[in-house]
Specification:
Layout: H1 5-8, H2 17-25, H3 28-42, H4 59-71, H5 85-97, H6 108-125, E1 127-131, E2 138-142, E3 148-151, E4 156-159, E5 165-172, H7 179-188, E6 193-200, E7 204-211, E8 214-223, E9 226-235, H8 239-252, H9 261-265, E10 272-279, E11 285-289, E12 298-301, E13 305-313, E14 318-323, E15 343-349, E16 361-369, E17 372-374, E18 385-387, E19 393-399, E20 415-419, H10 420-429, H11 441-447, E21 448-454
Antiparallel strand pairs: 1-2, 3-4, 4-5, 5-9, 6-7, 7-8, 8-9, 10-11, 10-21, 11-14, 12-13, 12-21, 13-14, 15-16, 15-18, 16-17, 18-19, 19-20
Helix pairs in contact: 2-3, 4-6
Length: 456
């Protein structure tokens, strides 16, 4: 292959193979024109029937899918959450590889498979986000590929034992520093560097090509007369591993605050997260918020042991758990439709940080305004029972994105309620018949349990 750029330039704009070829072979003026055309094409929407579900998906989820597809080697475009033709094609390629129908939209089991495969790659290469003290940038690194760390001329260098792979940061802050001057210098130094792709923008640039017998990739940004950059250099023999990783590193690189994947993907999930579950059968079936148990290595029900996730509905936001060897739980009553009034009583178990380590069941009043609960319930109430004015189960509380608690944490996200008719339909598809149970606040208190998600 003539260039790492056929893959690496896609970390800036999504270019088709013919476009890249035309760009690389054409004169400078034609290259500039081709780049502008390609940049517009990258934003072109695909067939509206394909991938239409992505438009309503939170940005963090879309970015996460592209991130995982890049790790699995299916996606080589800009990781920014925009699902254009390149992103949809990557989803289809993944679906083809796992033997699924190529719809361009990931069903919940397919998304789980993608996440698992991405995690395998990340663990294999030792992927880690690292704060570089020498430059102030944040860098995503395959730490197992580059275990050696040393000082570089104006940053930090990570390298493999024999130097086949080298990743280096740099920082330039001198009187009169301009991005264009650094761009020109990076094109010419070292002397054996032969750029095949060079893109200059107002606040950043990208270079890639060959440096001797190695592939190289440079990305740099300017802010307040300071340039911070990342250089990736690797033997062509390692391109099977490094080409996909370079795509991810390019997007993960955060030279200044407010840049990089971390800001697009939003607040990090807690390693241990607490929520509520609603018991629906005496034999151990428990309903909870699907997002609460997303990405869990272990799911526990406080005081009762480990639980298995047996089914979920991404559309409804429900997950069905099962405790094994349990026959005497107190199930909630799911036999009546809750009244349509907006005033609700939420029955749940607040996060232990909010109740001194305790697991007491509590109730709070809330109003359903449209699709949103007001005020927002406390952490720990994801999966809580929502009762109507007569004490009948109206539905289950879902929090759209539980986040880290503590000082400086962002405000709690919108919460809503999965209506009981949706819950009953979901249980029916799983051939789970809920018990009759009792109604009322006290009965609801007896039917909720604390669910604990432990993430690796």
């Amino acid at each position: 292959m003539r260039l790492a750029g056929a893959i690496l330039i896609a970390s800036i704009v999504a270019l088709s193979a013919p476009t890249v070829t035309a760009w690389l072979s054409g004169p400078p003026a034609a290259q500039a024109q081709t780049f502008q055309v390609a940049e517009k094409a990258a934003k072109k929407k695909t067939n509206p029937k394909e991938g239409s579900g992505y438009a309503s998906m939170p940005l963090a989820e879309r970015v996460g899918i592209q991130f995982d597809l890049a790790f699995t080697g299916h996606y080589n475009g800009l990781i920014n959450g925009e699902f254009n033709e390149r992103a949809i094609a990557a989803v289809k390629a993944f679906q083809k590889d796992i033997g699924s129908r190529e719809t361009g939209t990931l069903a919940a089991p397919e998304r789980a498979q993608l996440a698992a495969k991405s995690k395998e790659v990340q663990e294999r290469v030792g992927w880690k986000m690292v704060d570089d003290r020498a430059t102030g940038a944040q860098v995503g690194l395959p730490t197992r590929q580059v275990p050696s760390i040393s000082r570089a001329r104006s940053g930090t260098r990570w390298s493999s034992a024999q130097g086949q792979i080298q990743i280096e940061t740099f920082r330039i802050r001198e009187p009169g520093t301009t991005l264009s001057a650094v761009f020109e210098q990076q094109q010419q130094q070292p002397p054996n560097r032969k750029p095949n792709v060079s893109v200059m923008r107002e606040d950043n640039f990208i270079l890639s090509g060959l440096q001797g017998l190695k592939k190289f990739y440079v990305r740099a940004y300017i802010r307040d007369l300071e340039v911070r950059g990342l250089t990736i250099l690797y033997d062509q023999a390692t391109e099977g591993i490094m080409d996909p990783l370079t795509v991810v590193m390019a997007s993960a690189f955060a030279p200044f605050s407010g840049t990089g994947l971390a800001d697009l993907m939003g607040p990090s999930r807690r390693k241990i997260e607490y929520g509520t579950g609603i018991v629906v059968t005496a034999g151990g079936h428990i309903l909870t918020d699907r997002r609460l148990v997303e990405g869990c290595g272990v799911i526990q029900v406080s005081g009762l042991g480990d639980a298995n996730r047996v089914a979920e509905s991404e559309a409804a936001g429900i997950a069905l758990l099962r405790l094994i060897g349990v026959t005497d739980l107190a199930p909630a009553a799911l036999v009546h439709d809750g009244a349509r009034g907006p005033e609700l009583t939420l029955v749940g178990i607040a996060d232990p940080q909010l109740q001194g380590g305790s697991r007491a069941v509590s109730t709070v009043r809330a109003t359903l305004a449209g699709d949103t609960l007001q005020p927002m319930p406390q952490l720990g109430f994801s999966g809580a029972a929502a009762l109507d004015a007569q004490g009948r189960l109206f539905g289950m509380v879902t929090l759209k994105a539980p986040v880290m608690a503590g000082a400086g944490a962002p405000p709690l996200p919108p919460a809503t309620v999965v209506p009981i008719e949706t819950i009953r339909k979901f249980l029916d598809t799983q051939q789970v018949t809920p018990a009759t149970g009792r109604v009322g606040v006290e009965a609801a208190k007896a039917s909720v349990v604390r669910v604990i998600c432990v993430r690796r």
